[in-house]
Amino acid sequence: MGGSGWSYFVAYDSDVVGAFARLQQDVLSRGDFYSHAKKKFRSLEQLREAQAEEGTHSIIDMLRVTAEPAGELDPQAELLAAMLGGATSYGTIYRMSDAELEACFSTTRPTRSIIEANTSKVFARIRRGYGRYTPVFDGTAAVELYFAGVSGD
What we know:
Layout: E1 4-11, H1 16-30, H2 44-50, E2 64-69, H3 75-83, E3 92-95, H4 98-105, H5 112-117, H6 119-123, E4 130-138, E5 141-151
Parallel strand pairs: 2-3, 3-4
Antiparallel strand pairs: 1-5, 4-5
């Protein structure tokens, strides 16, 4: 099937980790994900177990969100760490750095319309198994959070 790009806008919350967790639960309850098993899942863990090899092609595949921007990721080191049971950053959504924001949106304070017009630039920067987020602005105030990523197999 290959990886799938996904994105979501949610109401702004300074607690990005909490917003991420609520969004995952919302996607689960709406059934807005890929699953070969045509059944209702009661928990994220149950769904992840059923979709372990293919993923859900949604934000549910992500395991954590961090306020740190993405550094240079070494795919071979990540694979080796995963194979050896070590720490890996796979499944992480990173905050978009100012450099990424400028490259994708020509501003560090993007509006929803700017983001929607430039999603291909965001996805071009994301490797499978990772994501990005940024606050979305309306004038001077952050009004939404934008999450985007690529996952699934």
